[in-house]
Amino acid sequence: MIANLVQLAAEEEQNPLIPPGPELLVGAIAFAIVFFFFWKKLLPNINKVLEERRAAIEGGIEEADAMKVEAQSVLEQYKAQLAEARHEAARLRQEAQEQGATLIAEMRAEGQRQREEIVAAGHSQLDADRKAASSALRQDVGKLATELAGKLVGESLEDHARQSRVIDRFLDDLEEKAEATR
């Protein structure tokens, strides 16, 4: 029993947080083997994967920057083309307005010319109709006047030359009086 007690007292003096010497030695050797394995085999693979990932990220960033520059260039080209198209549209609109104004002026001139032709033709037709009516009226008035004069005088006034002179003189006097009263 005493031996048990001595052994129990010796065990109680040992700290439970500090392992015994042989366990510490085996643990240190196992740690060294695992550390060596990680350092020689696993760490280079991990570094290689990390390096590839870093290169891929940097390449992606560079590619994104290049695409950004290209997109900016395309945007500038688009803006330039758009400005050019707007300028061209404005020029075409101005040309169309000028052509429209020219066409309107030509049509007005043509309409004015046609109107003047129609008015001139109307005046000439009116003058011709007036002359024809005047001539017909002179003949009719002359006949009626001669017949009336013949009935009043009681004899025939059939001498055409004299009859025409008398009628013309009478009608000319009437026209002069009509123009004087206007």
UniProtKB/TrEMBL annotation:
GO terms for cellular component: plasma membrane; proton-transporting ATP synthase complex. SUPFAM superfamilies: F1F0 ATP synthase subunit B, membrane domain. The keyword Ribonucleoprotein does not apply. GO terms for molecular function: proton-transporting ATP synthase activity, rotational mechanism; proton-transporting ATPase activity, rotational mechanism. The chain crosses the membrane at residues 24-43. Keywords: ATP synthesis, Cell membrane, CF(0), Coiled coil, Hydrogen ion transport, Ion transport, Membrane, Transmembrane, Transmembrane helix, Transport. The keyword Electron transport does not apply. It is a single-pass membrane protein. It comes from the Bacteria. Residues 61-102 form a coiled coil. It is found in: Cell membrane. InterPro entries: ATP_synth_B-like_membr_sf (IPR028987), ATP_synth_b/b'su_bac/chlpt (IPR002146), ATP_synth_F0_bsu_bac (IPR005864), ATP_synthase_B_chain (IPR050059). Belongs to the ATPase B chain family. F-type ATPases have 2 components, F(1) - the catalytic core - and F(0) - the membrane proton channel. F(1) has five subunits: alpha(3), beta(3), gamma(1), delta(1), epsilon(1). F(0) has three main subunits: a(1), b(2) and c(10-14). The alpha and beta chains form an alternating ring which encloses part of the gamma chain. F(1) is attached to F(0) by a central stalk formed by the gamma and epsilon chains, while a peripheral stalk is formed by the delta and b chains. HAMAP family: ATP_synth_b_bprime (MF_01398). F(1)F(0) ATP synthase produces ATP from ADP in the presence of a proton or sodium gradient. F-type ATPases consist of two structural domains, F(1) containing the extramembraneous catalytic core and F(0) containing the membrane proton channel, linked together by a central stalk and a peripheral stalk. During catalysis, ATP synthesis in the catalytic domain of F(1) is coupled via a rotary mechanism of the central stalk subunits to proton translocation. Component of the F(0) channel, it forms part of the peripheral stalk, linking F(1) to F(0). This is ATP synthase subunit b.
